[in-house]
Known about the structure:
The chain is α/β, with parallel strands linked by helices and 631 residues long. Among the domains are: 1-90 and 178-182, Immunoglobulin-like (Sandwich); 94-165, Methane Monooxygenase Hydroxylase, Chain G, domain 1 (Up-down Bundle); 544-630, Golgi alpha-mannosidase II (Immunoglobulin-like, Sandwich). The strands form six sheets. Strands 20-19-18-13-12-11-22-21 form an eight-stranded parallel beta sheet. The protein starts with 7 loop residues before the first strand and ends with a strand.
Amino acid sequence: MEGRRRVVIEDVRPRVDDGAYPVKRAVGDEVVAEFDAFADGHDRLASVVLYRHDCDQAWHEVRAAHVVNDRWRATFRVDTPGMHVFVAEAWVDIFGSWTHELEKRLAAGQDIAVELEIGADHVRSAARRARGSDASALRATVARLSEGDRAAALDPALHALMSRYAPRSFAARGPELRVWVDRERGARSAWYKVFPRSFGTLRDVAEVVVPHAAALGFDILYLLPIHPIGSTERKGKDNTLGAKGDDPGSPYAIGSHDGGHTAIAPELGTLEDLHALVAACAEQDLELALDIALQCSPDHPWVREHPEWFRHRPDGSIMYAENPPKKYQDIYPFDMSCDAWRPLWDALRDVFLYWAAQGIRAFRVDNPHTKPFAFWDWCLAEVRREYPDAIFLAEAFTRPKVMLRLAKAGFTQSYTYFTWRTAKWELTEYLTELTTETVDYFRPNFWPNTPDILPFHLQTGGRPAFTSRAVLAATLAASWGVYAPAFEQVVTTPLAPDREEYAGSEKYELRRWDLRDPTSLAPLIARLNAIRREHRALWRDRGLTFHRIENDSLIAYSRRAGDDVILCVVSLEHSQTESAWVDLDLAELGVTADRTFAVHDLLDGSRYHWQGPRNFVRLAPGAAHIFELER
Length: 631
């Protein structure tokens, strides 16, 4: 212990679980570091934040500024994917304390001759650390102070040099904290999800789906599992037992005599076809994402080669998956805690590594909450060690704490409860949590629907429900996605009136879609994605403000990043026109109360001139305003 180290550093932020897990940022983001730094007595302090990429040896440094009540703040930018570390450092500022005391003595009219000699000693010490013209300037100041030149003591140029060269005796450091930095699509992206077999082969997907998804402005084309499908206990239409001869089976029943998790279903094509699809996506500024489901059909090669990786009944047979009362006879889950867990874990990690080596850097992971957290802590780190640009989307519709823990384990983004949040109070409460309490590590990805979920409000609300949910998803979260083309073509038919499942689900049968359908929501979706790309206010899950509006069927909120401000008013009512007065928080919009300001609706091109906080809106069922504030 160094007893002469007088400074205390506490409450360093941002951090997750006291530094147990890294906070998340994307390339080009600023990290605003804050901390408490204080010492005994009345001396002044100085502080910096040191930061570096985990692979670098040298630290970069940025000066911290005092905020209020012993709170300090510094900002640094992260420009490289991977792990970064930062640490707060503070020390007693001997020269700053001397200057402060000198100013008080001058104000009191006291003799400062001795104090100037003390100051000369401080500057002399700094001059020994300086080089070149800086050293010469400091030595000249020593002479002036020794001659009693009080003006030299208060010269701003001297203070700038002393902040650079004054000794940092007995500096204290806070804990080293980590920041994981993703590429941009890890922080914001729009996902277009399809069953490739509904369009034919991977070559057909490249020819038909890729240009369509690109025209709609999506960033990621996400394919349901492309692996061989087992035939044992294959499911028929609508998840029924006893598949007919032409039933393709669920793509989640992975594995057959044609291979397992590193094979492609022969009916979809070859590895060469996949490479061609990856290239076709890249040409359209898209990237391909694969669905990774860590489970097997009874016909998977691993079932024969590694029966020890699965749970067994007393009679020796392998247990299939169940979520009572649901039964999945066509799927065998892994026993992640079996005696052979290490080779099992290695094999599952190698699935990600294999596809990453084929040019895939985005993965949607099926049901990650059914695997141990320790597995994901290890597996995601292993993959990122070789591919730091990998993106992982967690499909974890489960308990809140479990979802958050998966984000801490390293999942880049996560599905959320947005799918079922419909009332204004629900959306306000949930989004407040996502943009404040968990924003440093949990990145939401908003999906209005999935192949497994046709929410009741989409079943009954018709086109207005689809419109409003698309606007909400695209403007409330930095990342969003749709199960397509079911969403854009407003498919509303459920399996049964009390079921949130699609009739004729693509999980169990082939569908044929006409992507040129003139009645689809494609124009709206394309416009939403264009707005998202053009406005920085929608690029991150921060800067959200809800505004009071006197109608619970309407919701008003704004997103802001610097001077870029987007103001949305969305109707949550699907059957009738709604109107109300909205009370804007002008300070959050960067608008003064005495000035007229223009709002430009980015959906229909209309413009309005508003003044003051209180303004009137009227919206048709499911309609919305997405206003750009014009300066």
